[in-house]
Amino acid sequence: MRPTDFTLRGALDALNEGEITSEELTRAHLDAIEALNPRINAYITVTAEKALEAARASDARRKAGQAGRLDGVPLAIKDLFCTEGTRTTAASRILGEFVPPYESTVTANLLRDGAVFLGKVNLDEFAMGSSNATSAFGGVENPWSRRNDPDTKLVPGGSSGGSAAAVAARLALGATATDTGGSIRQPAAFCGIAGIKPTYGRCSRWGVVAFASSLDQAGPVARTVEDCALLLGSMAGFDPKDSTSVDLPVPDFAAACARGVKGLRIGVPKEYRLPGMPEEIGRLWEQGLDWLRAEGAEIVEISLPHTKYALPTYYIVAPAEASSNLARYDGVRYGARVSTGGDLKDLYEHTRAAGFGAEVKRRIMIGTYVLSAGYYDAYYLKAQRVRALIKRDFDEAWEKVDAILTPATPSAAFGADEKQDDPVAMYLNDVFTVTANLAGLPGLSVPAGLDAQGLPLGLQVIGKPFDEETVFAVGTALERAADFTTLPGVRAGQA
């Protein structure tokens, strides 16, 4: 077995048993990045020297019997998390060469537990996208390819496409990610790995570049459900610097993976059976329900009647919050500046025109419009009311079920040149995922099968607020039954 083939749990076991050192594990991943990243473009910044220095320090701690729970594990960090002394771009030209003088709470937690950071990975600009095509640093290539069309480059999903592609291609054992409307779960499904968006407030947002503050939530992607549980156990926790952080103890998520699902009631929302949904997505969903039924779970049909309003609600709330959050990028305080010798208004206009990409500009314009004096009540206020109804639907469902199973995405990964010129078609990629963000619920994507072209498809488990333990238990049962062992064609050692 190559060092890059370990799961995160397997790597920790090997490190603890002395089968490999963190320095060897880290060097193997850095070599893989050097060989493969020029093709798939998952990393924006590679911090090789820092990583090796951290790995040697980890080996010394382990030798002294002082290893943390993630000590020596090489991870990738989505370039939305501020990292002290390392460039943070949000995949946008407007941040230029911004180097934060502080560490985000989530990455500080991982460093506290001994993780090794390999570098910063690519994303859609300011996390706005479902394909990783809006990055100022170029798109990311999915390491998977179609069986009958291997030359067509596929998207890894977005916005956390660099995180998912790096893990799938064996360029990191796990990665941080963020999810505003599906940005962890969709790329995880497209790349054949696991990824969880925890409950809103479970992970601190302090030091994470903001997109839509009432929706953004950090979480991990990794090769297995248990690996995600290990990472989330480190990433999560109360943070007084974040007013939306919830002061609750962090459970042993990894232990919850072994609970099983016997006696659990699993909900099936009838509104998720969309007209025109591909047959293979429907079949996989039914297969997932059969797997859980065989494990002793009870399947219960439920109704989430306001689901049909979720996408339009999301695409009012998220751009509105984005237009407010992105107002801080003005060319004055930090980041790029385009000065033409005019007044302050000219400075703002030229800096933002040059610094923001087309999709970010589109969402700023939408958001500014729905917040404007003449349309605030008609759009933004109404969207917030509908959002409350969507949350109420889930609250009523939790009286009947313990978790909900749905497809993760409406299709497998699509071509880099497909759908990109149609913003509405791109937005529809979030149809199964946005409800969890609007209601603040945990959602986990688990690789569960392949489509007719040999591309991975995922199932999504949605749970009650702060009940990630049940989500991990259901996800592990699905993972065990699916026995998803197919690997992408492009990965470390196979390029």
TrEMBL record:
It catalyses: L-glutamyl-tRNA(Gln) + L-glutamine + ATP + H2O = L-glutaminyl-tRNA(Gln) + L-glutamate + ADP + phosphate + H(+). One of its GO terms (biological process) is translation. Its EC number is 6.3.5.7. GO terms for molecular function: ATP binding; glutaminyl-tRNA synthase (glutamine-hydrolyzing) activity; transferase activity. Residues 24-471 form the Amidase domain. Keywords: ATP-binding, Ligase, Nucleotide-binding, Protein biosynthesis, Transferase. It is an enzyme of class 6 (ligase). PROSITE patterns: AMIDASES (PS00571). GO terms for cellular component: glutamyl-tRNA(Gln) amidotransferase complex. It holds the Pfam family Amidase. The keyword Cell inner membrane does not apply. Belongs to the amidase family. GatA subfamily. HAMAP family: GatA. Allows the formation of correctly charged Gln-tRNA(Gln) through the transamidation of misacylated Glu-tRNA(Gln) in organisms which lack glutaminyl-tRNA synthetase. The reaction takes place in the presence of glutamine and ATP through an activated gamma-phospho-Glu-tRNA(Gln). Heterotrimer of A, B and C subunits. This is Glutamyl-tRNA(Gln) amidotransferase subunit A. It comes from Roseomonas mucosa. The gene is gatA.
